[in-house]
Amino acid sequence: MTIQTPNGFSLDNSGKRIVVDPVTRIEGHMRCEVNVDSNNVIRNAVSTGTMWRGLEVILKGRDPRDAWAFVERICGVCTGCHALTSVRAVEDALDIRIPNNAFLIREIMAKVLQWHDHVVHFYHLHALDWVNPVNALKADPKATSQLQQMVGPDHPNSSPGYFRDVQNRLKKFVESGQLGIFKNGYWDNPAYKLPPEADLMAVTHYLEALDFQKEIVKVHTIFGGKNPHPNYMVGGVPCAINMDGNMAAGAPLNMERLNFVKLKLQEAFAFSKNVYVPDVIAIASFYKGWLYGGGLSGLNVMDYGDYEAVQGRKETDRLPGGVILNGKWDEVHPIDPRDPEQVQEFVTHSWYSYGDGNADKGLHPWDGVTQPKYELGPNAKGTRTDIREIDESAKYSWIKAPRWKGNAVEVGPLARYILAYAHGVDYVKGQVEDSLGRFNALAGTSLTPQQALPTTIGRTLARALEAHYCAQMMLDDFDHLIANIKAGDSSTANVEKWDPATWPKEAKGVGTVAAPRGGLGHWIKIKDGRIENYQCVVPTTWNGGPRDPKGNIGAFEASLMNTPMERPEEPVEILRTLHSFDPCLACSTHVIAPDGAEMARVTVR
Q1: How does DSSP assign 330-382, residue by residue?
Q2: pTM score, two decimals?
Q3: What is the mean pLDDT of the segment spanning 323-345?
């Protein structure tokens, strides 16, 4: 049966049903089911979150000053962004202004996280959807060196001998039979298009990124004490500045530590400029005809806006927020997370209940309810503990369905870059036009931003460009921090309202952050010094949510529509597009099975 959704997608759940479970590599529990027609084109998509987070329930009655430490554990990958969002929400509720040094340190930590998360996502979670590491064994190291010098001429590691050494390491690894994450790839699938030399270059940079990702997070250990889950505090940051101090004296921010931070930021800038961005452009050029996966990004995108150049002045956001609807880049709607008519969550198709008579009601997060109600629809196949096929006409996900004024929207780096481009941000426009020019030159195409960005490849490129922009911004923020310190400002915390006796009897606040996967919001209600209600609407809630009462599908489901598959039983194309969002469903949860136990299965009916 064919169904036309209000947001313009034609769904047909006849034909072959394919189940991929789990979809994500490390970040939680995600299931996807699609229907393909006789030509192996996806005509229906169903995205399911298969785990209940439940932290909102745990937080009730707790001290708001402690909330950041709990919600930070939502994710072990995007470490810190939930903590930052939480302290912003509490500070908003209690009208606390933090010192400028604390603002700058938080900004640097957020951008380090953004950079690290994007690099890890591409090289270690997403690249294998495009790159065939086994094929790299056939590469000519000399030709690989020539490719490297063409796409990234400033990268020092580019000699034929260097690539030959990596190829020999890879050969020993493959011959040993201990393939690790390479074991279950569909390496003979014709969906892989790269020549061996591009595969070898990408695998080499996979290893380089693996080495450097552990270096850049040391910035978090300097400012926040540890990584993952660095320390934050309501009112500022928990680190002191003493340029004459030393670690033994308990003053972590001295000149030696700050010089180390600057070195790591410079190295990150160089890697994203010389390796990450060129790799994405080069790989994309070999997939120039794969312009699928746009989904909602070609229609509706949203972000709250972030990265103020000046504290307290949202008009200086370097990645400004807003909403674009129906693909109209020339019309950006303002966004207000406080407005109950703008942000609402629905649970019509989610395993939650808003009470009798409220099945189709949308709730603003300040009034949000997290009451689980797990039930399978009448057309589901299998059992409650062994689902074989989801019933999308009923409840089918642990993710709620957020909507902006009733519209399903996509969030993430691609949404931010479309918004920034539409706002006319010079840095972003320069990045987009330069990278698209390089892509067109390599691929022999003439795509415009409006054609290239709203695609799976465009989503992956936007994440790389954002990483490099963050590297530039954190170097600028570091310079401002040093200037403040030189001017005699060493304040890192405002504790005037630390005592609950200074708080109003009731208060509510909201904090937002440009998290790696998209616009992140936390809403808090405080009563008598305790948390009365707390709701997190995370990026994957926006992207991965199920259908709403009107039948609109979300970003994950929309992105898969009309995508052709080479071999439906080897769902490379499904993984390629869903991984481009970097989905994070229950990031702090990991599943370990005994040796020999089945961890994943792809079934075709």
Answers
A1: T--B---TT-TTTEEEE-TTBSB---TT-TT--B-GGG----B-----TT-EE
A2: 0.94
A3: 97
Average pLDDT value for residue range 486-509: 97
Tokens at 572, concatenated: 């490379």
Asked whether the beta carbons of 353 and 370 are under 8 A apart, the reply is: no
Q: What is the pLDDT of residue 290?
A: 94
Q: What is the 3-state secondary structure (H, E, C) of 378-434?
A: CCCEEECCEEEECCCCCCCECCCEEEECCECCECCHHHHHHHHHHHCCHHHHHHHHH
CA torsion sign for 229, 233, 237, 240 is negative
At residue 159's C-alpha, the angle toward residues 158 and 160, to 5°, is: 125
SS3 257: helix
Question: Count of alpha carbons within 13 Å of 415, Cβ hemisphere only?
Answer: 34
Per-residue pLDDT tens over the stretch 210-219: 999 999 999 9
pLDDT single digits (tens) 220-269? 999 999 999 999 999 999 999 988 766 554 457 899 999 999 999 999 99
Interhelix angle for 196-216 vs 160-175, to 10°? 90
530: which 2 tokens?
A: 């305790």
Mean pLDDT over each residue of the chain, to the nearest integer = 92
Distance between CA atoms of 319 and 473, rounded to whole angstroms?
11
Q: Cβ distance 600 to 32 under 8 Å? A: no
| 90, 62 Cβ separation under 8 angstroms | no
Tokens 């629905």 belong to residue = 346
C-alpha torsion sign, points 581, 584, 585, 590: positive
Cis peptide before 365 (omega within 30 of 0): no
Question: From CA 493, how far away is CA 565, in angstroms rounded?
Answer: 54
The span from the CA of 153 to the CA of 155, in Å, is 6
Give yes or no for a contact between 454 and 205, defined as CB atoms under 8 angstroms apart: no
Cα(353)–Cα(366) distance, integer angstroms: 16
Residue labelled with tokens 């706002």: 423
Bridging pattern class, strands 386-389 and 401-404: unpaired
Write down the H helix ranges in 60-99: 67-71, 81-94
543 touches 398 (CB < 8 A): no
Tell me the HSE value of 554 on the side-chain side, using a 13 A CA sphere: 32
Round to whole Å and give the CA distance between 185 and 127: 12
